[in-house]
Structures are given as C-alpha cells and as structure tokens.
Amino acid sequence: MNRSIIIAVALATSAWMAQAEQILLRGSDGTAHGPFEVRNGEKITLKGEEFAIEVLTKTPAQAKLEEKLRSTTVDLIEFTEVPLDTVFAFFSAKHQVNIVPTASLVTNRSGLKVTLTLRNVPLYDAFRYIAKLTDCTFHVEDAAVVFDLRPSTTAGRRKSK
C-alpha cells in the first residue's frame, strides 16, 4: 500500500515557507535514512515503501549558524584540484565557521581533491555543492558544520588519486 506522507511544519514567518527542512526518513523496519532536504508540505513515497518523516528540530544555536550560512554570500570560489581538507580550512578561516569532518570521511576521502568554480552563492549552497561533488552529506550543529560520508557510500569507493 503506497501512502504519501505530508509534512506539516509550523513556521514562524512566511519567509521560511520556501526554505528546505532537514528530515530523516524512517522505514517500516525502523531504519533511518538521511538527513535529506524537503520543502514544507512535500509528499514523499519511495519505491512503494512507506516512510515516516521526522523533522529535525533546530536549537537556537543551530538556527543562528544556519542563518549565517544562508545569508553569507561568497563572491567567488575557484578551486582546481584542491585537497578537501584545504577546502575546509579555507572556508573555516575566511568565514569563521567551524567545519568538522567525521573520522570516516577523513579515513575514506583523505586524497580527495575538489574542482569547483562558483560566483555569488550563499555559503550554505557552496557547502551543498561541495558535499555533492565529494559524495558526502553535511549538517549544521550548534557550533559547527559537520561533513560525513553519504550513508550509501561504500568505504573507499570513490577515493581520489
């Protein structure tokens, strides 16, 4: 039986209505998948399996850091074969944002290099593109942005030369 789940989130202002929320998808066996981004009211059914959606609540510190990431515009990013740890160090120093790669990310992506050029993008979007290019995820915690391997990634599968 396919059923769509409707996400109903009370938001403080209408400006947030267009913003994506981070969610976990929980299968009927209890396995959690994510976090993913979904927009308020979006319906979700995946491969005929029903998923319960848990909206991740944000602490005031998380909301403040996320707002900083969304409101800080990066004028220009030009990386050509730059090691991922150097990319993290660049953003951390330039934008005073703590970036924490998980141990599994450090172990399995140690040689990964990033090639990316972006102009006039929010810092949040720059992190989103970096995560996509490196087959990672990221989430905002109280005092840091944490990057991790994408859950479906096999350890070492896409190690760079």
As a percent range, the share of helical residues equals 25-40%
Mean pLDDT: 77
What is the number of strand segments?
10
What coarse outline follows from CA principal-axis ratios? globular
What's the CATH first level of the largest domain?
A: Alpha Beta
Rg: 17 Å
Distance between the termini: 46 Å
Strand order of the largest sheet: 3-2-5
Structural notes for this entry:
By secondary structure, this protein is of the alpha+beta class. The protein folds into two domains: 53 residues, no CATH class; 88 residues, Phage tail protein beta-alpha-beta fold (3-Layer(bab) Sandwich), CATH 3.55.50. The chain is built from four helices and ten strands; from the N terminus they run βββββαβαβαβαββ. The strands form four sheets. A three-stranded antiparallel beta sheet has the order 3-2-5, with no helix packed on it. β9 and β10 form a beta hairpin. The N terminus and C terminus are likely disordered.
Q: Helix and strand layout, with pairings?
A:
Layout: E1 5-6, E2 20-26, E3 32-39, E4 43-44, E5 52-55, H1 60-71, E6 73-83, H2 84-95, E7 99-101, H3 103-108, E8 113-122, H4 123-133, E9 136-140, E10 145-149
Parallel strand pairs: 7-10
Antiparallel strand pairs: 1-4, 2-3, 2-5, 6-8, 9-10
